[in-house]
Structure formats: C-alpha cells, structure tokens
Amino acid sequence: MNITMNPRQVGDVKIVDITGRIELGQESAAVRNLVGDLLNEGHKKILLNLAGVDYIDSSGVGALVSAFSTVHKAGGQLKLLNLTDKVGDLMEVTKLYTVFDIATDEETALKSFDQSSAATA
Fold first, then answer.
1. Fewer Cβ close by (within 10 Å): the C or N end of the chain?
2. Please, what is the Cα angle at 33 between 8 and 38, to 5 degrees?
3. Domains of the chain: residue spans and CATH
4. For residue range 3-28, what is the model confidence (pLDDT) as tens digits?
5. End-to-end alpha-carbon separation of the chain, Å?
C-alpha cells in the first residue's frame, strides 16, 4: 500500500495527515474506511491534511467525495487542508473546490469548524 494515514486530535477536530498516493485499490478504500471508523468513534469534525499526497486518481477523488458525503449525512464536517499543486489542480478541473471546504493552513482550518458550527446553530 502506497499510503500512510496518521490521525491526531486538536481540540474537537480529528486531523488525519495523509502521505502517499490515493488511488484505485487499497489506498482509496483505506481513506473511506478510516473516515468511517472515525465517525463510528464519534468524531464529527474531520480534517484531511493532504500535504503529503503526491498523486490522486479518479478512484481517490471518489473516495474523498464518498467520505465527504458520509460525514455530511452523519451530521459532521469533513474539510481538506494543504492540497499539493497536482491535487489542487485536480480539484479545480473537477470543480470539487466548490464542494469541499479547503484551507491552506491548519489554524485557519481549525477555526473554520467553529465558524461552521456557529452558522448552523
């Protein structure tokens, strides 16, 4: 498997630092499974740090969209952080930047969860 995922907790947000390639097979399944596991553990605020992701294929994009949908249906929020140029370009071409809340620094991303929660309260 060409992916590593290291979850860590900052306040009430679960940040997952992802490194490697998110592609068809075990990698995309691992992302979906991890997000499902986090939800089952009660984590509703999830931030995927993609700074170390150097490649993502259509299956990987599908895994991110699926994870986003699953979290949203569970009443949570899933956001993306630190997209590499390649991943950022892909999000732009596919227009997914309109779906995902994407941040370029961790502090801003963490604060955005509080703002989103206040807006929906």
1. C
2. 40
3. 3-115 (3.30.750.24)
4. 999 999 999 999 999 999 999 999 99
5. 41
Place of tokens 């150097």: 54
Q: Which helix (H) or strand (E) holds 49?
A: strand 45-56
What separation in angstroms does the CA of 73 have from each of 11, 70, 105? 22, 5, 26
pTM, rounded to two decimals:
0.93
For residue range 61-98, what is the model confidence (pLDDT) as tens digits?
999 999 999 999 999 999 999 999 999 999 999 999 99
Q: Which amino acid is at 66?
A: S
d(CA 91, CA 39): 24
> CA-to-CA distance for 119 and 19, rounded, in angstroms?
32
